[in-house]
Amino acid sequence: MSVISGNIDTRVADLRSVTDEALRLAPAKEAEVIIFHRDTALTRFANSEIHQNVAERDLTVRIRVVDAGRFGVASTNSVDADSLRRAGELALEAARRQPVREMTPPLAPPAEADPPPIDPATAAATPEDRASLVAIICADAEARGVSAFGALSTGINTYAVANSGGLFLAGPRTIANLQVATIAGDGHGYADRASIHFADIDAAAAGEEAIDKALNTRDAGAIEPGVYPVVLEEAAVAELLEYLSYIGFSGLAAEEGRTFMRLGEKITGASIHVWDDGNDPSGLPMTFDFEGVPKRRVELITDGVATGLVHDMASAVRFGVESTGHGLPAPNPIGAWASNLFIGGGNAGSKADLLKGIERGVWVTRFWYVNVLHPRQSLLTGMTRDGTFLIEKGEITRPIKNMRFTQSVMEALAGASAITRKQKLVAGSDYEFTQALMVPAMRLDAFNFTSVTR
User: pLDDT tens, position by position, for the chain (454 residues)?
Assistant: First the structure.
């Protein structure tokens, strides 16, 4: 087997042939094979003109062997027999250089998982298809004296997991993702759209949103840092949720004592409901993990109470539970990964409704340069970007300079006094394991800003 078909219908069968061959050639009785097959493309634009089309088709075969309580991993981009054999030998050599591990997790047992829904139009989108959407944004930006920058990516990633215990699971995942940044003098704007369906990407609306932000943030003035009520748009909420997932939702984080999650305790406001569901098609579904375990819905925070953690095979063994199907390629230092996250909606009909009752506050489009200060306190620091506004007497009155925040996310969410009913899908920043974040916009009663940018 030397070539993986680009055809969706035949690709899984081709991947099965590769995993069968890799397992047959593996130099250990216990072995696992993961295949990442990426077939993606993007159209980049800058200064309101398309300047680049890029297409990538890549395949990686990752072989993990288990030898007397030790793991070894090696990978290859070739699928001929010699390359697969050599990767297996390197994995075994690496395993024999490792110390024996206590409580070695087993390989996942054979299982079945329904393939996630996909969109052939997303997988087959052409440069012309993407250019037709980008052209809408660029034309609107040019007509209004704004410079537009960004990228529209489309494609299909196919994953396969197999092991020597008889497991084989494979499935594709289509993703279309648009990001738009705009500049108008000293004003900046941003908008994004993501979906498994290319037809769902509303380029005109995203472009208009970003252009309006750039025009409306010109001549921003500073306000004093301090604690303010805030309205966070969906991109800002998604950024906070992505960091919460990274620092606290896994069994490994709880085991190592570095999480804010204290199961059974109220850790934030009663209006907060967070869960992960890899089978929900409204996100970016992936129905099994990178150990070959079908994904389960996990209630993480319910009515403000920490109710669950996500587990891979390793943390499941140590906790004496079953894996929830959230494993990344093992072994890894991160632990289980919640990849299709949701925050429940509230009662506010629109983002404008979130302004009601705020005497003086801050509207935030999104955050950037976010870093973790104290994971057990969910304490983050970062900056606002691309649309920060002053709220006075329930209305947005003027643009303000970006500010740095230092804030416990759990404490901020304890003051979530209004949440929109509607949620928006935001794609996470990780390229290989793209995370889905389906989130509402929300009003938080207190958010700590520590300084103002120049």
Answer: 445 555 666 778 899 999 999 999 999 999 999 999 999 999 999 999 999 999 999 999 999 999 988 999 999 999 999 999 999 999 999 999 988 887 789 999 999 999 899 999 999 999 999 999 999 999 999 999 999 999 999 999 999 999 999 999 999 999 999 999 999 999 999 999 999 999 999 999 999 999 999 999 999 999 999 999 999 999 999 999 999 999 999 999 999 999 999 999 999 999 999 999 999 999 999 999 999 999 999 999 999 999 999 999 999 999 999 999 999 999 999 999 999 999 999 999 999 999 999 999 999 999 999 999 999 999 999 999 999 999 999 999 999 999 999 999 999 999 999 999 999 999 987 656 689 999 999 999 999 999 998 7
Note if the bond before 331 is cis, omega within 30 degrees. yes
Sign of CA dihedral 131, 434, 6, 80: positive
Contact status, residue 241 vs residue 247, Cβ threshold 8 Å: no
Question: Measuring CA to CA, which residue among 345, 235, 344, 240 is closest to residue 300?
Answer: 344
In 26-80, alpha helices (H): none
Which has the closest alpha carbon to 383: 244, 259, 239? 239
- Dig out the tokens for 273 from the structure: 């409901």
> What's CA 354's distance to the chain center, in Å?
26
Residue in 115, 152, 125 with CA at minimum distance from that of residue 136 = 152
- Nearest-Å Rg of the Cα atoms of the chain is 23
Q: Are strands 340-343 and 436-439 parallel, antiparallel or unpaired?
A: parallel
